[in-house]
Amino acid sequence: MRWSSLFLLLPVLFWGISYIAIKVVLRELEPGEMISARFLLATPVLYLIIRLKGLTVWPVEKKGHLFVAAFLVFLHFWVMATGMKETAATNTAWILTTAPIFVAALAWIYLKEVFSLHHWIGFGVAAFGVVLLTANGSLSNLAWINSRGDVIVLGSCVTWAFYTVATRDITRKVHPLVATFWMTGVAGVVFIPYTLATSGAGIYLAMQPITTLSLVFLGVFCLAVSFWLWAEGLSRYTAAEVGAYLYIEPLFTMVAAWALINEAITLWIILGAILITLGVYISERKG
């Protein structure tokens, strides 16, 4: 293994474990409270990395687009965290791997990009995988009251697609790290005061140590450090090589969730995961 592969492997590891950390934090905080603090923690670390790389945060182009992106990325994380209150970390990780298919579909609708037969086949296979994952061996689990968390997490794939399509031109003008700094910074500055006004600072001061550590991990390592390492990796590898690393992210989640928070690994989860991976592969590689 080349040492440079750590630029991709470490972020994937952090992101895989992040779903477990989110489950821990959601025991004490609401989704908005968690995400606001997470963004605020990431912003100064991103600023330090940007300065160490010799980049500047001002002046910056695409200011209006960055404000829209800040709102959309907050919405995406909020929808995902809301769904995670009612579903497993493992389910979340596998369902979120379908996001590229939703991006392709939205680009087909709004940007008139090609959505081929392979995209449709991949979408169908992945959708069937999500159904198997959600059902987990019992059709009664597909009832709205039981599968609501999985459905909401699937909705976060749609919010990610809107974020991706709406902000696709930003990184052509703005360095990815600088863009991430402004998006997390704006979202944190806007939503933290609202959180403090509605929930009070006491919610953060009263957190258990494990919750505090999980929140710092989510903000510093899963956002700031991971985005930096991922950007470095993108400059060293082809798109196909980068995509291969993303396929193993849910595997990290599944094993870690089993080891750390006792989430069961069932045959239905494995079958659903295989179909989701196959569907995304067909859509991305063949479409």
Explain the overall architecture:
This protein has 287 residues and is mainly α. It has 14 helices and no strands. The chain has one domain. The protein has helices at residues 6-25, 31-52, 63-84, 89-96, 99-110, 117-135, 144-166, 170-173, 176-198, 202-205, 209-234, 239-247, 249-260, 267-286. The chain is globular and about 50 Å long.
> How many domain regions?
1
The number of distinct β-strands equals 0
Give a short account of the largest sheet. Answer: none
Q: Rg to the nearest angstrom? A: 19 Å
Structural class: mainly alpha
- Could you say which overall geometry the principal axes of the C-alpha atoms support? globular
Descriptive keywords:
287 residues, single chain, mainly alpha
Structure, briefly:
The protein is mainly α and 287 residues long. It contains 14 helices and no strands.
Topology:
Blueprint: H1 6-25, H2 31-52, H3 63-84, H4 89-96, H5 99-110, H6 117-135, H7 144-166, H8 170-173, H9 176-198, H10 202-205, H11 209-234, H12 239-247, H13 249-260, H14 267-286
Helix pairs in contact: 1-4, 1-11, 1-13, 2-3, 2-9, 2-11, 3-7, 3-9, 4-7, 4-13, 5-7, 6-14, 9-11
